[in-house]
Design goal:
Order of helices and strands: HHHHH
Number of domains: 2
Structural class: mainly alpha
Shape: elongated
Number of strands: 0
Radius of gyration: 20 Å
Largest sheet: none
Helix content: 55-70%
């Protein structure tokens, strides 16, 4: 392999890994959510492109806003998929305090609360379909 082509090959390989991970998340979301009767997350609710309409932004600023809107929207979309999955399968708070908890985390059972875990599993499994 030519030494000049090597960085492009590596970048292309990393890009393929990213696409494979994104495909796996989409496959999980498309197949597992209906099986467990969890409402699917609408991508359009998380990824919003509206800043291009602002007339006071120049072309470069609008381009940057598009990148940021996609990036933050994608993180919010994936975060909601993970939050609904966690609520269904493991609605237990962590022993240590965490940064960046999702909106559903406050309703999780306290760490070590075995009595409530045994008494309320169905309540948490029904909730991902109700709360958006």
């Amino acid at each position: 392999m030519n030494i000049i082509k090597l960085p492009f090959f590596i970048a292309e390989f990393r890009h393929a890994k990213t696409w494979a991970k994104a495909w796996a998340r989409s496959y999980f979301h498309a197949t597992c959510f209906p099986i467990y009767r969890i409402d699917k997350v609408r991508r359009a609710d998380s990824i919003v492109f509206d800043r291009q309409q602002l007339e006071y932004l120049n072309f470069i600023e609008k381009f940057h806003c598009t990148c940021c809107a996609y990036g933050t929207g994608l993180i919010a979309y994936i975060g909601e998929i993970v939050a609904r999955t966690e609520q269904y399968f493991c609605p237990i708070k962590h022993a240590r305090r965490m940064l960046g908890i999702h909106s559903r985390y406050a309703g999780f059972l306290d760490y070590g609360d075995a009595a409530d875990y045994e008494a309320k599993p169905g309540e948490f499994r029904a909730a991902p379909a109700k709360k958006s």
